[in-house]
Write a structure and sequence with these properties.
transmembrane; antibiotic resistance; about 450 residues
């Protein structure tokens, strides 16, 4: 990471990361395809009702993953080997215990959640076929995410790709068997997804017992308070994911109130399309984090600048391509997730796309800047951008714009919030770019 040519290293890390997240996103989209076509729009709505709680738990896993791997990456860059395995072990133990506790907490309070957000009748019944099963498997995913980040910071991105690819392939095959062949419906989708989570751990865990690894599972040493530093550094990722969950809750509530179950299903389809763009951008940003952090530790600021430039250009190209596809073939994309009879959901989704497409142009660069700030341990600035993008601006926009423009304002909220976030993020980045950081180190 410290001496390979930037473009070569970018492709070494970015390509496996992109392929990995493409595999994961394709599995999720295939979920949507099978559920939309074999269960119906009520099934899509049930998944989206479950989504907020899952993103909050996913955010906890990312907080440990990003926070601890960035610190370990910096320690590797500084050639400080003593604490590396200690931080790794404590992170794995912590996320496993927290994952089990949080999933149990949510499981025993599902009725409160349904009452709070007016989830009733058949939508509640369908959600209960899916969510409890996913909660059982989610601690496996949370642990797998942390393992995956450490595999990549230990310079084995290919294994990370293999684990996520095989997990996605398992999910797709089991979706077909459980939903189409055995007609298990939403329960089948939940079991398919859950089993695919376990596959990731099975593939990754041998890496940490190999001779080549720098990271070992050891008996934890010293105070556990040092794990707080990892949480602080990864807090922006938690804010980002959990805020998305809260925002989805609000959007679901508004869509349910204004458009009924078809509105929630429509928002789910939009979410699938946006997810592809965001995951590709996140893959590039995420693959750069260990590279940024190691070069930051080694004070290779010109290399950091080169990597940021390459990542920015790549993300812009992806965003432009996704925007073109959304604008030119929206009906083809929507039809992947709906039966021919779901005309009302199709109509709402097409109108939603008309006003939501500009979000694709700015979301990727916003994600890259927050990842960059996290990797140079500017956690508070990264968290500030993340909470603006994922919580404050979308929720503010949906209420303000809907009061001015009615239902159209609901559809505009995502685009407006991403654009405003972009303006703020660029200003913050310019004050913390590699050139200025270099000057600060020189002046110390």
């Amino acid at each position: 990471m410290l001496d390979t040519k930037p473009l070569i290293l970018f492709f070494k890390y970015a390509i496996p990361s992109i392929l990995s997240l493409l595999a994961i996103s394709s599995a999720s989209i295939v979920d949507g395809y099978f559920i939309g076509n074999y269960v119906g729009s009520i099934g899509l709505a049930a998944i989206n009702i479950s989504h907020p709680m899952l993103t909050i738990l996913f955010g906890f896993a990312l907080m440990f993953s990003v926070g601890s791997s960035v610190i370990v990456g910096k320690l590797m860059g500084e050639n400080k080997k003593d604490e590396i395995s200690n931080i790794f072990t404590k992170s794995i133990i912590s996320i496993s215990i927290i994952g089990i506790f949080l999933c149990l907490l949510i499981y025993f309070n599902l009725e409160t959640f349904f009452n709070l957000f007016k989830v009733e009748n058949i939508l509640k019944e369908e959600t209960l076929l899916y969510l409890p099963i996913i909660l059982f498997f989610l601690p496996f995913l949370m642990t797998a995410i942390v393992l995956d980040y450490f595999v990549r910071v230990d310079e084995n991105p290919t294994l990370s790709f293999l684990a996520l690819f095989l997990s996605a392939l398992t999910n797709i095959i089991l979706d077909y068997l459980f939903i189409v062949k055995f007609d298990f419906g939403l329960s089948g989708a939940a079991y398919a997804t859950g089993i695919s989570y376990v596959i990731i751990i099975v593939i990754l865990i041998p890496h940490f017992f190999s001779k080549k690894t720098s990271l070992k599972l050891i008996k934890p040493k010293g105070s556990w308070f040092n794990i707080i530093n990892t949480l602080k550094n990864g807090f922006s990722e938690f804010i980002n994911e959990s805020s998305i969950g809260i925002t989805v809750l609000v959007f679901n509530y508004i869509m349910l109130k204004n458009f009924g179950t078809q509105g929630v299903a429509s928002y789910t389809i939009i979410g699938y399309l946006i997810m592809i763009s965001i995951l590709l951008s996140f893959a590039i940003s995420d693959s750069m984090q260990p590279i940024f952090s190691k070069n930051y530790g080694a004070r290779n600021f010109n290399r950091m600048k080169s990597f940021f430039k390459i990542a920015s250009i790549s993300i812009l190209l992806i965003e432009l391509l996704m925007t073109i596809l959304i604008l030119t073939i929206p009906e083809i994309l929507i039809n992947l997730f709906l039966k021919d009879s779901e005309q009302e959901t199709r109509k709402i989704t097409l109108e939603f796309i008309t006003y939501a497409w500009p979000a694709f142009l700015f979301s990727g660069l916003n994600i890259l800047i927050t990842s960059y700030l996290t990797s140079i341990q500017k956690a508070s600035l990264s968290a500030f951008i993340a909470i603006l993008r994922s919580l404050v601006l979308p929720i503010s926009a949906i209420f303000i714009l809907s009061s001015i423009f009615g239902n159209i304002g609901i559809f505009m909220a995502l685009s407006v919030s991403e654009f405003i976030t972009f303006l703020i993020a660029i200003k913050i980045f310019m004050k913390n770019n590699p050139n200025l950081i270099h000057l600060r180190f020189i002046n110390l």
